[in-house]
Specification:
This protein is mainly beta and about 425 residues long. About 5% of the residues lie in helices and about 40% in strands. It has helices at about 1-10, 380-385; strands at about 35-45, 45-55, 60-65, 80-90, 95, 105-110, 125, 140-145, 150-155, 165-170, 185-190, 195-200, 205-215, 225-230, 250, 265-270, 275, 280, 285-290, 290-295, 305, 310, 315-320, 325-330, 330, 340-345, 350-360, 375-380, 390-395, 405, 410. The strands form 8 sheets. The protein has a 6-stranded antiparallel sheet with strand order 17-18-23-29-26-27, with no helix packed on it. The protein has a 5-stranded antiparallel sheet with strand order 16-19-20-30-25, with no helix packed on it.
């Protein structure tokens, strides 16, 4: 008889036909409201819409929102409480305006003045965002890449921002409150078009920075501060006995740098393997025409884009350098070839990256460049600053036409 009464009591609250993943409640537990299930929070900027499955025994629901998740089995710290409110059962789904750009943790319980409250649900979370009609969007994907004693700032920008305020400190920035101005090292304002931006800092120190978006031309509020840290080092230019550390000009004949006879013995001679002569290296299939070197046409199989820009695998000439400087040469093509100069570096904080220094199809159309001015291609200090080892400079044909290189001279500037 007791079992029949219990079944009728449960059915009265809409629990017949429950799926097997619901808990089977005992008689003492039915003296309190049933704990809400299928609880969810849908976020649009700062608006959070709560919803869950209704049971007939509840007349309202209590919601608590916290800024921190308590340890398992512990009650939340009252100081982390953001908000607490009741929601009438007829008001679901219920929309609440939360704090801007914050991760929150919430729990829900059912209430009825004639019965005991239900147990709290397990904590769940939601993350609010910035409403772009109210506040500037905070910088996204923020990076501060330290290259020895130089730092490169960059982040994703948004249309509702005009100025980014950047502050750099030499002490930790607290997560709450304002940092001590006595620790402020540098303060600057950047427009979106100035990114990425490079600063020189004192070496061998750790710095902490923060950035926020502003728009002085509108009523938008500044975004929240976001930031991080970076560490600088003292930069020393590397040394490499195989690098071109002094002014030097190409030569093709005689012996290579290993003491072997040069394969370039006369006009229209081709190398079958990579070879280095007088510090200049020639990839396979380069052809010497006495006073000039012909670099074969390139294609997708002769280059790699692994380092961010095309680097040739063959059909090139190259040299190593540990210092900035300039190349003086004549680049020619009678067939519409496009000459390209790329530098491959391995820098502190960046790893291996390729950068295009020169690329043009507007080169001399006369093989001998008679009466023409030499091409001067400059590799700047900033192109190499922070390198851990000698950089490699490549010259190659970047389209499907050959390029000729008349004798090249490299002159370091440091």
């Amino acid at each position: 008889m007791k079992k029949i009464l219990l079944f009728l009591f449960v059915a009265a609250f809409g629990l017949t036909g429950c799926q097997k993943d619901y808990k089977i409640y005992t008689a003492p537990e039915l003296s309190r409201c049933l704990t809400p299930v299928d609880v969810k929070a849908t976020v649009q900027y700062m608006k959070v819409t709560f919803d869950w499955r209704l049971f007939a025994d509840a007349t309202s629901y209590a919601v608590e929102i916290y800024s921190a998740l308590p340890e398992e089995g512990m009650e939340p710290d009252p100081e982390t409480l953001i908000d607490a409110f009741d929601v009438d059962k007829d008001k679901l789904p219920y929309t609440y305006v939360g704090p801007e750009d914050q991760k929150c943790y919430y729990r829900v319980k059912a209430k009825n003045p004639t019965r005991a409250d239900s147990r709290w649900t397990a904590f769940a979370s939601f993350k609010t965002d910035t409403d772009p009609t109210v506040s500037c969007s905070k910088p996204a994907n923020l990076t501060a890449t330290a290259i020895c004693d130089m730092v490169v700032f960059d982040w994703e920008v948004f249309p509702n921002t005009k100025i980014y305020e950047v502050e750099i400190y030499d002490k930790f920035i607290p997560s709450t409150g304002e940092p001590d101005e006595a620790n402020l090292v540098q303060k600057l304002e950047l427009e979106p078009t100035q990114l990425p931006d490079t600063l020189m800092m004192n070496p061998d120190k750790k710095f902490f920075y923060r950035v926020r978006a502003t728009n002085p031309d509108s009523d938008l509020k500044p975004s929240k501060w976001v930031g991080g840290s970076f560490e600088t080092k003292t930069f020393v230019w590397p040394t490499d006995e195989k690098a071109l550390n002094e002014t030097i000009t190409q030569k093709y004949t005689g012996t290579d740098d290993e003491g072997n006879p040069s394969p370039f013995t006369g006009s229209n001679t081709k190398n079958t393997q990579e070879i280095t002569i007088n510090g200049f290296t020639y990839g396979v299939q380069c052809t010497c025409w006495g006073n000039r070197m012909s670099l074969p046409a390139g294609n997708s199989s002769t280059v790699t884009s692994e380092f961010g820009a095309f680097v040739p695998l063959k059909n090139y000439m190259s040299f190593k350098t540990c210092k900035p400087g300039s190349i003086e040469t004549y680049l020619t093509s009678t067939s519409g070839g496009e000459a390209c100069v790329v530098i491959l570096t391995d820098k502190e904080g960046e790893g291996k990256k390729a950068k295009v220094i020169f690329q043009s199809s507007d080169i001399h159309t006369d093989y001998y460049a008679k009466g023409k001015t030499q091409d001067k291609i400059v590799i700047k200090e900033g192109d190499l600053y922070g390198i851990k080892e000698a950089a490699t400079v490549y010259v190659f044909a970047s389209n499907h036409k050959n390029v000729q290189v008349l004798q090249m001279t490299w002159t370091p500037s440091l």
